[in-house]
Design a protein that fits this description.
By secondary structure, the protein is of the alpha/beta class. The protein has a single domain, classed as Rossmann fold, CATH 3.40.50. It contains 6 helices and 9 strands; from the N terminus they run E-E-E-E-H-H-E-E-H-E-H-E-H-E-H. The strands form 2 sheets. The protein has a 7-stranded mixed sheet with strand order 3-5-6-4-7-8-9, sandwiched between helices. Strands 1-2 form a two-stranded antiparallel sheet. Strand 8, helix 5 and strand 9 form a beta-alpha-beta unit. The protein starts with about 50 loop residues before the first strand and ends with a helix. The structure holds guanosine-5'-diphosphate. The site of guanosine-5'-diphosphate (GDP) has 16 residues, from helix 1. Keywords: Cell cycle, Cell division, GTP-binding, Magnesium, Metal-binding, Nucleotide-binding, Septation.
Length: about 300
Amino acid sequence: MVVTQLPRFHYLVFKNPPPSFKFFPKPKVPIKSTASTLFSAPKSTLSTTEPIPITDFSLPDEPKLEISLDKLFVPPETQVSCDDSSLSTRILKGSNIVLSRYARDAQVVQAEFVKSSVRTEDCPSDGLPEFALVGRSNVGKSSLLNSLVRRKRLALTSKKPGKTQCINHFRINDSWYLVDLPGYGYASAPQELRTDWGKFTKDYFINRSTLVSVFLLIDASIPAKKIDLEYASWLGQNQVPMTLIFTKCDKRKKKKNGGKRPEENVKDFQELICGFFQTVPPWIMTSSVTNQGRDEILLHMAQLRNYWLKH
Ligand code: GDP
């Protein structure tokens, strides 16, 4: 059973609850929001920067991450305490995400392609919650989608001619959607097409009321790209809930010409975007080769989804 492979969830109730963090980062330049229900938690006043050792179930050569308390993503209705010794067991491996009591029903039992849409209005109208995967061409989006649903070729649908520029909906367990959006930054795409792409996906981000979170994929095997930073800042400024998914974290060979390891690129990327956010967005390190981060993404999606459904 898949469920037995998922990390254990420990939820504790504190006698004197500390202030909780915002569910999603609130940009410094707020514009219009359609996802306001997910932004309501009060800002944390926790000031400690004491690093928290993250419980390490990883391969011996995987680095141990340390994250300060103020860099954690704490879902709403979840409490953390500076002196909570079990906190490290409640943080998803290779991420900054604390588990909440909403992390249930995470496993994928069934996945099916539903439809390709060219406009937001044409997307499925059954009101099920959805998560959109987006990233630069070649970032590993199809590989990640296939890994999440444990199917080798499901995402091929999105690569078929005629569907690459569409919003592709995949229904999971008959209860939620994974949405594959067109890759951006494809150098050989004509300028006209790139502009259209911008308009069409931006409309989807702003107007799709069932969008729970965008999953922005970033290649962790290379230094931050300008277009990815621009994308992250646009999502932040438009208050579109965003999770950063760092891909290709198995590519560990340090390149001779000053290349950095994935965890260094992950840290650099966050430092570069922190100016656009009051608190850090949730992030997860992944690899479609080793399946690192797969269960963590599904648990994160489950807790966002279950919270969204309840509110
Ligand atoms: P897409 O264009 O974003 O859909 O990217 P693909 O999933 O087609 O992957 C692009 C290339 O990156 C392919 O050659 C994949 O085999 C490779 N790739 C994707 N994910 C990973 C990963 O996690 N690790 C490594 N080492 N390579 C990957």
